[in-house]
Design a protein that fits this description.
- Helix content is 76%, strand content 0%.
- By secondary structure, it is an all-alpha fold.
- The chain is globular, with a radius of gyration of 17 Å.
- The longest helix is centred in the last third of the chain and has 30 residues.
- Helix 2 packs across helix 3 and helix 6 crosses helix 9.
- The chain is built from nine helices and no strands.
Length: 171
């Protein structure tokens, strides 16, 4: 397939998943401008490395992988993760269709290590199949299944602990 056709498919992919990739980038950096920078840089990287894509059918996961890698590179460069205050989180939520209704869940997600947070964000917030998550993160399907299980277990424990604290505080 010629490069021009690949470029057209990439533009279609970027356009179709622009909200998803922005949310994904935002989930890593919690800053609107940084998330936009990450998506913009990922788009540039995708065009530059388009020749490395051998199967057009896997363009979506290939592109999402670039977004994840770019976000992780950004965090490594910053050497810090910016905490999100409630006002910022709410203002972000109001601008998207899929805002988080549960701030306890958002807080619990933030406390997860990246390897767990990534699988939860991709699987449940972006509604990707386990095989797609594995492809994006460069892991095998069983590793992703294990990480999802472990992440959900950690979230349950964290949310349960928080709700128990609230019960004790209000008692």
């Amino acid at each position: 397939m010629n490069r021009r056709r690949f470029e057209e498919q990439l533009v279609a992919c970027i356009t179709e998943y622009k909200e998803s990739t922005y949310r994904l980038a935002y989930s890593y950096v919690h800053n609107q401008e940084d998330a936009l920078d990450i998506v913009q840089e990922a788009i540039q990287k995708a065009f530059v490395s388009l020749d490395t894509l051998h199967k057009p059918a896997s363009m979506k996961s290939w592109y999402f992988r670039i977004v994840v890698t770019t976000a992780l590179d950004f965090i490594r460069k910053q050497k810090r993760v910016q905490p999100v205050d409630e006002e910022t989180l709410l203002s972000f939520g109001l601008e998207t269709e899929d805002h988080y209704h549960n701030l306890d869940l958002e807080q619990a997600l933030e406390e997860l290590p990246f390897k767990y947070k990534s699988v939860i964000m991709l699987r449940y917030f972006e509604d990707l199949k386990i095989e797609e998550v594995a492809d994006i993160l460069g892991e095998n399907v069983n590793t992703i299944k294990t990480r999802i299980y472990q992440a959900l277990r950690l979230l349950r424990v964290k949310l349960k602990d928080d709700s128990m604290e609230e019960v004790h505080q209000h008692a």
